[in-house]
Amino acid sequence: MKIVRRIGVSPRARGSLSGSNCPDMFELSDGNFAVIGTEATATLESELPADASCGADERIVIVSRETVLRAKADIPDA
């Protein structure tokens, strides 16, 4: 599995001064997506609805609204 492309604009284009330590989204070679965000499993796991869960190998991450909105145009419909 490899990163194929960034989804949205770079952190630097969203105003990060360092451009290297901010939320980001990527499309992977297998068609899935990877996100870089702030780890929040301990804070949010108890807030999940009854029909949702976080597996032992999964983490809840927070990605800023701006990151997702700026990525929207790059997310394929299918």
Protein traits:
78 residues, alpha+beta, three-stranded antiparallel beta sheet, two-stranded antiparallel sheet, 5 strands, globular
Structural class: alpha+beta
Distance between the termini: 20 Å
The percentage helix is 10-25%
Number of strands: 5
Order of helices and strands: EEEEHEH
| Beta-strand residue fraction | 15-25%
What general outline do the C-alpha atoms trace? Answer: globular
Strand line-up across the major sheet: 1-2-3
| Integer-rounded radius of gyration | 14 Å
State the helix count: 2
Could you report the average pLDDT, rounded to the nearest whole number? Answer: 88
Uncertain spans, ≥5 residues at pLDDT below 50? Answer: none
* Biggest sheet descriptor: 3 strands, antiparallel
Report on the architecture of this protein.
This protein is of the alpha+beta class and 78 residues long. Helices cover 14% and strands 22% of the residues. It is built from two helices and five strands. It has helices at residues 41-44, 65-71; strands spanning 3-6, 24-28, 33-36, 38-39, 61-62. The strands form two sheets. The protein has a three-stranded antiparallel β-sheet with strand order 1-2-3, covered by helices on one side. The longest helix is centred in the C-terminal third of the chain and has 7 residues, at 65-71. The two termini are 20 Å apart. The relative contact order is 0.25.
Please provide a brief summary of the model.
With 78 residues, the protein is α+β, with helices and mostly antiparallel strands.
